[in-house]
Amino acid sequence: MFLVVGLGNPGTQYAKNRHNIGFMFIDRLIDSPDFGPVRKKFQSEVAEGSVDTPKGPAKILAMKPQTFMNLSGNAVLEAATFYKIKPDHILVFHDELDLAPGRFRLKMGGGHAGHNGLRSIMGHLGPNFVRGRMGIGHPGQKELVHSWVLSDFYKAEDWVERLCDACVKALPLALLGESEKYMTEVMRLSPAPKFDPKKVVQ
């Protein structure tokens, strides 16, 4: 079984925030007849299902922790312990300040770069889980980061849905450990936008 986690904050006031792009990805993933209903478990909203891969169906527990971002690791640890899922079978999709809007990278391990959700998960599981880094861009100044990640995506940023869809469609490659192929396919399906969303008037 794979644990596929999207990071974000619970509540309608945060639903369209940049910080919640991981939740948006999970919503697209579980919007499929291959996934069962959403349930409350492991301090999260979870749905069980499967994703077809060339080596057969892969069983998935899709998760949106409801602990708020800073305590995401509590929920992830609970589910991973219950199902005995090893860190290398845990994929965490999250917003990434250090990537331009719409860019995507998949990597195993690394630091948290100040991301409190990753910091929390690393505190419980160590660093060796897979990260799906979904670029939201940087506001340019450190003191603006907090308000930037908690601001809503602009209506003109139609790349957000495209990127989430691409991450779902290409997911079999990630589950097979084909990181480079997965990144290439995601960017083929959802090329990064050429405009800077910070300059777009909402």
From TrEMBL:
Q: Which SUPFAM superfamilies match?
A: Peptidyl-tRNA hydrolase-like
Q: What is its main location?
A: cytoplasm
* Record field: catalytic activity: an N-acyl-L-alpha-aminoacyl-tRNA + H2O = an N-acyl-L-amino acid + a tRNA + H(+)
Primary enzyme class: hydrolase
UniProt-annotated location(s): Cytoplasm
Q: Which residues bind tRNA?
A: 14, 68, 70, 116
Q: What would you give as a GO molecular function for this chain, any one? A: peptidyl-tRNA hydrolase activity
Give the site residues for Stabilizes the basic form of H active site to accept a proton: 95
Q: Identify the catalytic residues.
A: 19
Q: Which domain of life is it from?
A: Bacteria
Task: Give the site residues for Discriminates between blocked and unblocked aminoacyl-tRNA.
Answer: 9
Q: Which PROSITE patterns does this one have?
A: PEPT_TRNA_HYDROL_1 (PS01195), PEPT_TRNA_HYDROL_2 (PS01196)
What EC number(s) are associated with this protein in UniProt? 3.1.1.29
UniProt-listed Pfam families: Pept_tRNA_hydro
Keyword entries, A-Z: Cytoplasm, Hydrolase, RNA-binding, tRNA-binding
Q: Which family does it belong to?
A: Belongs to the PTH family.
Q: What job does this protein perform?
A: Hydrolyzes ribosome-free peptidyl-tRNAs (with 1 or more amino acids incorporated), which drop off the ribosome during protein synthesis, or as a result of ribosome stalling.
What assembly does the database describe for this protein? Monomer.
| Protein name, as recorded | Peptidyl-tRNA hydrolase
